[in-house]
Specification:
The complex is a heterotrimer of chains A (about 100), B (about 575) and C (about 160). Chain A is mostly helical and about 100 residues long. Chain A is about 85% helix and about 0% strand. Chain A has 4 helices and no strands. In chain B, strands 1-2 form a two-stranded antiparallel sheet. Chain B has one domain. Chain B is mainly alpha-helical and about 575 residues long. In chain C, helix 1 runs antiparallel to helix 2 and helix 2 runs antiparallel to helix 3. The longest helix of chain C is centred in the middle third of the chain and has 26 residues. Chains A and C meet through helix 1, helix 2 and helix 3 of A and helix 1, helix 2, helix 3, helix 4 and helix 5 of C.
């Protein structure tokens, strides 16, 4: 296992994705969840660019990365708008008290 | 040119759906007019497309390889069904101008109808399995939305959900079959599969054949899936005419006809198809005989006639089944629209309350009688020619037992048709009902359909030629022009069938003297009215699924964290499988 | 080159962990901005300058402004620190996933990066991925409409009031 650029990048990507996933599961505040999702998507961005480089299809990887940036920004925008409305109508952003499913 | 016409045939109704929905419910007259214009234009385009029929691909759109290419082929099977869908669609829309006047939610109604017409045209013209499945699902969606159109009526909603679930089960069969074909041939193209079906290993091909049979049976309301069609009669009558008589239920028959060459030699497949067709025809005819709801009787009749078509495919008569499909679409739509005219004015669907309506509704009576005669198979009308062709191929190539049963069903058809016509239009009125003859828009559609019933059999020759020229994978005996019709007249089986039909009509005429027989069969009649136990089977399945779902409810906690945890666990399992060398 | 990448990678890790760990939302958003900037830098170091620029302006700029805006409107909230699920379980699960991912991808990454021929990005983007661009534009418009729909008051049509 040589310490080459791809190896380091792989470790970084795996780490960022892991941190993002962890944040997604563990967070209790709705906005924190959106932040964690953003981190997860940054990891996937790096993965896309990296994958483009290693397979030789550089342009494809970068185009996909651009699409992912735009899509994930829109998702964050709408999620934040939803969070603001939830705060207005429910008074709280706590995940545990937001659920209305009967248990 | 053909490709452009295909785009128009699918695109114009879809564009119309968006436009009518956008116009909004505050301008109902505009909505009516726009819907009629769009559907009539689509019908004209589809009729123009018929002259461009060809066995070559007309439209080929590569979409990146993952789903194959989106191809459309205007071959004989496809263009004729597309023409049927759009033309009868436009007639149903014209009928709706009067039938649905004053209803709320018109935009929703017309949008779904136009969406359905476009999707049906796309379904029969496409040559890509996934597009076929996509259009299949769109038609199921529109059917559900239109059955439950009066969504404040619980019966309508129940009927819609029942139709949706049962046809979706069929859709699963279609999807699984397509994916199995893809995994063995590497292509999503239907034409490619039909020419290279030997490359698919035997077991897989058998599974695919039976999956497609399930899909077709569920969509066309054949045994054992026949319970959804009678309950779908809660839909407004133009919808019953369009979707549940003339187009969507034809999709199953189309599927079987399209894939027949590939599945012909699978052992017992043809037998299974014949059994499905014969059982559906027989059971539905018996249920129609004891029915009292006008639309339900027509629904049972549809199931029975579709059984004829399925039986025809089972014995190998592709042309006769498609020709009967053409005739049936026309006369069944006529019957349904006529029934709609009756129901619209008298306000009830119960035939025991009707009677003697012929005096106040002479025009509707005339067209309904024309349709009824075609359904029974009286000579000169289109039903006669197509039904005789089916019985001929059945006698020549099928098991003799099934032929005899189908002959008896033809007699039963005549019997229940005459019963239905008599109960509604003749005799003395059984209760005080307000009635007047059909208004203009309804009259136009009914008249056009009646003309079609009287004359569409003349298309037999060109239709045969179109099918045999453009379907290179099917074996269709090419016979010119009136030679086919001449054959029908010369076959002894024709006269045998006419005899049985005559017996059926005679049985109705002298029913009073047959009261003894009726009492003896009374027990049978109760079973028939209860749907031969299939309704109870459905209820049982529904209860089972609901109790299972109640038990699984504890997994839905409503907390995001649990859901993401489940995602992470799933990911771990997949990765473990991959690491172990899958 | 190698050491710069290691440093930037460590920086991303630290910023991300801090973004999850801190309790105040505004601080979390700032840490996210830092992580985005470092990610943009790393993408630039991987020879993809256009993507890096867009990521920097959108990811580190626009999204951070949006977060700050939303946090100000929604307000900070003092929450109980007990998470819904036990932390050790989650950590084990995540570590298992990460290790498996790395192990599965190892063979593909043993080699050096191939050299990249530059300058083809815009041509590819517009010609070969045209459908993508179109869909992104549709996505942006639907996002704008969605936000407008979510954050606006309901309008009552005068006609409906009379019918009701």
């Amino acid at each position: 296992m040589t310490l080459s650029i791809p190896m380091i990048m792989l470790l970084v990507v795996a780490g960022v994705v892991a941190i993002g996933f962890y944040g997604l599961i563990i967070s209790r505040n709705l906005i924190k969840v959106v932040i964690a999702m953003q981190i997860l998507v940054k990891g996937s961005l790096l993965a896309l660019v990296l994958a483009g480089r290693t397979t030789g299809k550089v342009n494809l990887g970068q185009s996909m990365a651009l699409t992912v940036i735009i899509a994930d920004t829109i998702v964050a925008v709408i999620a934040l708008a939803l969070a603001v409305q939830i705060r207005r109508y429910f008074g709280t952003l706590d995940l545990k008290s937001l659920t209305t499913l009967r248990r | 040119m053909a490709g452009f016409l295909i785009l128009l045939t699918i695109g114009i109704p879809w564009l119309g759906a968006l436009v009518v929905w956008w116009v909004g419910d505050r301008h109902p007259k505009v909505e009516h007019t726009l819907a009629v214009i769009f559907s009539v234009v689509a019908g004209a385009v589809a009729l123009g497309l018929v002259s461009y029929n060809n066995f070559a691909e007309a439209l080929h759109q590569p979409v990146g390889g993952a789903f194959g290419d989106f191809t459309f082929i205007p071959d004989g099977l496809g263009v004729f069904l597309a023409a049927v869908a759009t033309v009868i669609g436009s007639l149903a829309v014209i009928f709706s101008v009067n039938y649905m006047s004053g209803e709320i939610g018109l935009g929703r109604y017309y949008a779904y109808v136009l969406l359905f017409i476009g999707a049906m045209a796309g379904l029969v013209l496409t040559s890509n399995f996934l597009l076929l499945f996509a259009f299949w699902e769109i038609t199921a969606l529109c059917s559900y939305a239109l059955i439950s159109f009066h969504n404040d009526d619980p019966k309508a909603v129940k009927g819609g959900i029942k139709a949706l679930i049962m046809t979706q089960v069929g859709g699963i069969g279609l999807l699984v079959g397509s994916l199995i074909i893809y995994s063995h041939t590497g292509s999503f193209d239907i034409r490619y599969f039909l020419t290279n079906y030997e490359n698919v290993p035997y077991v897989a091909l058998t599974v695919v054949a039976y999956c497609f049979l399930i899909a077709a049976a569920a969509k066309s309301a054949q045994f054992p899936f026949q319970t959804w069609l009678p309950d779908a009669m809660e839909a407004p009558t133009p919808i019953s005419a369009l979707i549940h008589a003339a187009t969507m239920v034809n999709a199953g028959v189309y599927l079987l006809a399209r894939f027949y060459p590939a599945f012909e030699y699978i052992p017992y497949w043809r037998t299974a198809v014949i059994v499905v067709g014969v059982l559906s025809a027989l059971m539905a005819a018996l249920m129609a005989l004891v029915g009292t709801d006008l639309k339900r009787v027509l629904a049972y009749s549809t199931i029975s006639q579709l059984g004829f078509m399925v039986y025809a495919i089972g014995v190998g008569g592709i042309f006769s089944s498609q020709f009967h499909l053409l005739s049936h679409s026309i006369f069944k739509a006529l019957l349904f629209l006529g029934a709609g005219a009756v129901i619209h004015t008298v306000g009830t669907r119960d035939m025991t309350k009707m009677g003697g309506l012929g005096k106040t509704m002479p025009f509707v009576r005339t067209v309904f009688v024309i349709g009824g005669l075609a359904l029974s198979g009286i000579p000169i009308l289109n039903g006669f020619w197509s039904k005789e062709l089916i019985l001929e191929s059945g006698l020549a190539e099928g098991p003799i037992g099934s032929y005899i049963i189908m002959l008896i069903v033809s007699g039963l058809t005549a019997l229940y048709t005459f019963r239905c016509m008599w109960m509604v239009f003749y005799g003395k009125p059984r209760s005080e009902l307000h009635s007047h003859d059909a208004p203009l828009a309804m009259g136009i559609s009914l008249a056009l359909l009646a003309v079609g019933t009287l004359f569409s059999w003349l298309l037999a020759g060109p239709f045969n030629r179109m099918l045999s020229m453009t379907l290179p994978t099917h074996v269709i005996n090419l016979k010119e022009g009136t030679a086919i019709l001449g054959d029908v007249l010369l076959e002894p089986s024709t006269y045998l069938a006419l005899l049985v039909i005559g017996l059926g009509i005679a049985a109705w005429r002298w029913r009073k003297s047959l009261q003894g027989v009726v009492k003896f069969l009374g027990v049978f009649g109760e079973e028939a009215a209860a749907g031969f136990g299939f309704e109870d089977l459905n209820q049982g399945i529904v209860k089972l699924v609901q109790s299972g779902a109640e038990g699984l409810r504890i997994t839905q906690t409503g907390l995001l964290s649990w859901n993401v945890l489940a995602i992470a666990v799933g990911l771990a399992i997949v990765l473990v499988f991959l690491a172990l060398g899958a | 080159m190698l050491y710069i990448l290691i440093a930037v990678g460590l920086g991303i890790w630290i910023c991300a962990i801090q973004a999850i760990r801190v309790h105040r939302l505004l601080t979390s958003a700032i840490w996210l901005a830092g992580a985005s900037a470092l990610v943009a830098l790393m993408i630039y170091l991987l020879d993809a300058p256009e993507v890096a620029v867009i990521e920097l302006s959108v990811g580190a700029g626009l999204v951070t402004v949006l977060f700050v805006f939303a946090i100000n409107i929604a307000g900070e909230e003092e929450l109980a620190i007990i998470p819904v699920l036990p932390k050790p379980l989650v950590i084990i699960l995540i570590v298992v996933n990460a290790v498996l991912l790395i192990v599965l991808n190892l063979p593909a990454f043993g080699v050096e990066l191939p050299p990249v021929l530059g300058g083809q990005f815009t041509k590819t983007m517009w010609q070969e991925r045209g459908l993508d661009i179109l869909l992104q534009i549709v996505l942006i418009y639907s996002g704008v409409l969605g936000v407008l729909g979510l954050l606006s008051e309901k309008k009552i049509h005068p006609g409906e009031e009379e019918q009701a």
